């Protein structure tokens, strides 16, 4: 059972770290994108069992005119229409993404921290020590004379009845 716990904690921690690295890789690929300012002109609502997620619809102006995209990163807080936000735009202008601190913190830093914690817990898990069982399946108590080699261990129910 101990090995299952170790494997479970370490595997879950490793999975969290892999997901954090994959998310950071997607941001690393965007390092060559241009930083701009855009304006929130609307939002889409995604409903699921957890509630509503609002993905902002952002518009910015480039050489081709006005371009609009919907951010992949949403929030439970409804975006403010007309608010100016920082965005990243790829070289072709086909893709864009809103820059918020929560993007990197929530999807990179937090999984990395939790992954490391789970791995540390998994590695430091120790097997449970089995206790002696009496004839009735009850834990055994030892009397003071046990240390001198006197009495034999007795189940708790018999030890208390003396």
UniProtKB/TrEMBL annotation:
<feature type="transmembrane region" description="Helical">
    <location>
        <begin position="105"/>
        <end position="125"/>
    </location>
</feature>
<protein>
    <recommendedName>
        <fullName>DUF3592 domain-containing protein</fullName>
    </recommendedName>
</protein>
<feature type="compositionally biased region" description="Polar residues">
    <location>
        <begin position="132"/>
        <end position="148"/>
    </location>
</feature>
<feature type="region of interest" description="Disordered">
    <location>
        <begin position="131"/>
        <end position="162"/>
    </location>
</feature>
<feature type="compositionally biased region" description="Basic and acidic residues">
    <location>
        <begin position="153"/>
        <end position="162"/>
    </location>
</feature>
<keyword id="KW-0812">Transmembrane</keyword>
<keyword id="KW-0472">Membrane</keyword>
<keyword id="KW-1133">Transmembrane helix</keyword>
<feature type="transmembrane region" description="Helical">
    <location>
        <begin position="6"/>
        <end position="27"/>
    </location>
</feature>
């Amino acid at each position: 059972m101990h090995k299952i716990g170790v494997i479970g904690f370490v595997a879950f921690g490793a999975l969290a770290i892999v997901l954090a690295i994959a998310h950071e890789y997607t941001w690393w690929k965007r390092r060559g994108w241009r930083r701009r300012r855009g304006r929130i002109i609307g939002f889409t609502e995604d409903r699921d069992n957890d509630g509503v997620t609002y993905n902002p619809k952002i518009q910015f102006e480039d050489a081709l005119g006005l371009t609009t995209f919907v951010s992949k990163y949403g929030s439970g807080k409804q975006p403010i229409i007309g608010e100016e936000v920082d965005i990243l735009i790829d070289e072709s202008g086909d893709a864009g993404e809103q820059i918020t601190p929560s993007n990197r913190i929530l999807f990179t830093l937090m999984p990395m921290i939790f992954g490391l914690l789970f791995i540390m817990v998994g590695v430091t898990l120790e097997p449970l020590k089995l206790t002696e069982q009496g004839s009735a399946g009850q834990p055994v108590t030892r009397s003071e004379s046990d240390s001198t080699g006197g009495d034999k261990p007795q189940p708790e129910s018999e030890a208390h009845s003396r």
